[in-house]
Specification:
Layout lengths: L1 E6 L3 H10 L6 E4 L16 E2 L10 H19 L4 E3 L2 E5 L4 H14 L4 E5 H7 L9 E5 L3 E3 L1 H14 L3 E3 L4 E7 L2 E6 L3 E9 L5 H7 L8 E10 L10 E3 L10 E4 L5 E4 L3 E2 L10 H14 L8 E11 L6 E6 L2 E5 L5 H17 L25 H10 L6 E3 L4 E2 H9 L5 H8 L12 H12 L18
Parallel strand pairs: 1-2, 1-12, 2-9, 5-14, 12-20
Antiparallel strand pairs: 3-8, 4-8, 5-7, 6-7, 10-11, 11-12, 13-16, 13-17, 13-18, 15-16, 19-20, 21-22
Length: 466
């Protein structure tokens, strides 16, 4: 018998687990993928929004503004990368009124550190932007992170505080037994007082398993392009065009790893598994960026990827205890990453109305990340290598990832090539693992005892060898 079962191990599920793990609760998280962060969360722009692009009065606006505030302390306590670089929503000479409307919206939400800047300011601070851009709304509190690193930080902290994670497990049926819930999976059957449904793209299907009606989720695909590291950062701030009803537009995104991403597109599709990228979308992104200023050389694009947003017609987050003990989280798309810590607080407040929450005496509030040789000073590198020589063996040349980092990722739960990639950045460079994949597989074979023909890229049947 569990106190709480969380369904879904993306950024929302792990953030909720992390928020609840400080209390004397027996918590189980069930995730259908073989690792956390393998669904919607893995293909995210990594932006921590100010919140002023969400409509005043909406739940997404309230939670995004609060979540933005929480990231500073969380990133310190859980040791994941986060940097406030600010965002600019740019406009032409005849579009200033739209910026003023966004400014007023942000003020109503309670967002501070906003101002409208002019052409002179832009020429100094963002010289790569087009001279046709006359004004911009600056939101100084916007930041960037790696969504999967944040997700793994939440996962590791929750696990350290005895949250149970059952991965590669699929929920097949949910039924109400008086005031309890029974969840049947492909592996086992569980009973619990509370179900928290944050299954991303499939949250509507999970709700239907419990015979609870909810908004239908339709996937909205976003394709993005990653530029080569040598291109550097085209802009100092995150650059947005004026938003449209269903999208924030094609952006220039300086990443936390000092590279640049451009995108995403916004295309409504039918298939919740369709992650294909297209030449048409690539061309659309490149042409859209020209309107902002920078001209992108296609030769500098090292990869294209896509993600699916769990959109609904409601156009806002839906978080509610729809039936006693069953909390639905539906349509948590952008700014979901930003709002994730605040969603953890929000769900905790719902739980607290039904269960007395007592903080654990043994609660572990801190977590240390995997050391990154690339980011260390020479003296720090030497000290670490003296302590563990595996940190002196480079496996991934493009991103300067060592054997020590890969081993640490495995010991923290990575069991696939993508699980290692998202924790360390190996295989994320220009060669896409052409040099290092076999070496990583050697390490996985040795450390995990997995036969080579059973090693996968991302679980299921994504085998690398035959």
């Amino acid at each position: 018998m569990k106190d709480i079962i969380i369904i879904g191990g993306g950024i929302i599920g792990t953030a909720i687990a992390q928020a609840l793990c400080k209390y004397e609760l027996d918590i189980l998280l069930i995730e259908k993928e073989c690792e956390c962060s393998f669904g919607v969360s893995k293909s995210n722009s990594g932006i921590i929004h100010t919140g002023f692009q969400s409509k005043y009065g909406s739940l997404s606006a309230t939670l995004a503004a609060r979540g933005n505030q929480l990231y500073t302390d969380l990133s310190i306590d859980l040791d994941f990368p986060f940097r406030r670089i600010g965002e600019l929503i740019v406009a032409h000479i005849d579009e200033k009124q739209q910026l003023e409307d966004l400014y007023k919206n942000g003020s109503l939400i309670g967002i501070s550190e906003m101002k409208i800047v002019d052409r002179e300011w832009l020429a100094i601070h963002e010289p790569n932007l087009s001279e046709t851009i006359s004004f911009a709304l600056l939101g100084s509190t916007a930041g960037i992170t790696n969504p999967y690193e944040a997700c793994y930080a939440f996962f590791e902290n929750a696990k350290a505080n005895n949250v149970q994670f059952n991965l590669s497990e699929t929920v097949e049926n949910i039924s109400q037994l008086n005031e309890r819930w029974e969840i049947r999976t492909n592996m086992s059957t569980y009973q619990t007082n509370f179900v928290i449904n944050c299954a991303g793209l499939f949250a509507d299907k999970v709700s239907q398993l419990a015979d609870i009606e909810c908004e239908t989720i339709f996937p909205r695909k976003g394709e993005e392009l990653l530029l080569d590291r040598h291109v550097g950062e085209l802009c100092k701030h995150i650059i947005f065009p004026l938003p449209k009803p269903n999208t924030k537009g094609i952006l220039i995104i300086p990443t936390i790893d000092h590279t640049t991403m451009i995108g995403p597109t916004a295309e409504v599709i039918d298939d919740k598994e369709d992650l294909r990228t297209t030449t048409a979308s690539k061309d659309h992104i490149i042409n859209s960026i020209k309107d902002l200023g920078p001209v992108i050389d296609p030769a500098t694009i090292i990869t294209a990827f896509s993600g699916l947003r769990p959109a609904t017609k409601l156009g806002d987050f839906y978080i509610n205890e729809d039936r006693k003990g069953f909390i639905n989280l539906i349509g948590i798309q952008s700014p979901g990453l930003t709002a994730a810590p605040a969603i953890g607080e929000f769900v905790t407040s719902i739980i607290s109305k039904n269960i007395k929450l007592t903080i654990k005496k043994t609660y572990i509030s801190k977590r240390k990340s995997i050391p990154k040789i690339r980011d260390m000073s020479v003296s720090a590198k030497n000290t670490l290598i003296k302590k563990d020589s595996d940190f002196g063996t480079i496996i991934c040349r493009c991103e300067e990832v060592t054997k020590g980092e890969i081993l640490e990722a495995i010991r923290r739960g990575a069991k696939t090539l993508d699980g290692i990639k998202f924790r360390t950045r190996c295989q994320m460079g220009r060669c896409h693992g052409s040099f290092c994949t076999m070496k990583i597989m050697d390490i996985m074979h040795e450390e995990l005892g997995i036969p080579y023909n059973e090693i996968t890229k991302r679980g299921h049947d994504s085998y690398v060898t035959i």
